[in-house]
Design brief:
Mean pLDDT: 91
Radius of gyration: 17 Å
Low-confidence stretches: none
Shape: globular
Helix content: 40-55%
Amino acid sequence: MGRGALAGPVIASAVILPPKTKIYNLKDSKKLTDINRRKALKIIKDKSIEYSIGSVSSIEIDKINIFNASLLAMKRAINSLKNKPDYILVDGFYLPNLKIYNNGIIKGDNKFLSISAASVFAKVYRDDIMINLSKKYSNYFFEENKGYGTKQHIEKLNLFKPCPIHRKTFSPMKNFFKHNK
């Protein structure tokens, strides 16, 4: 989660669910309200065998790019599991250089419960990080925009310049730096 944000980490989650688990109305985290994501997260935690989080900071993202950072976040989430799965379903793309067989599924968070569960888990976790960071960097309203490039966030960048958690290599940020030297 957070691949398109201008600030903050990218987060991935790994969730192992028992076979034949059912969680009704669970779908792509972006299609759920915050309240429904948080309700779903409680159910996911109760029903899962195990779950974990992988995080990559904005500094790391700037060094290795968002695609590689997303892969790294997923690998960190998987490597944090105590029970290593035999097979992994991944939302979007295959994870290279992983010793566990994995399959990238386009729009997997709309097709597979485990991917939907991981999507919800990562979204809530990242949102909470950004809400906490908004206390330190209150000028940017991260509690509202979660680091994404909203009109308000861009306006605040023009007033206050980037803070340490902004991703300096992202296209909108590059333009910002170019025009605000």
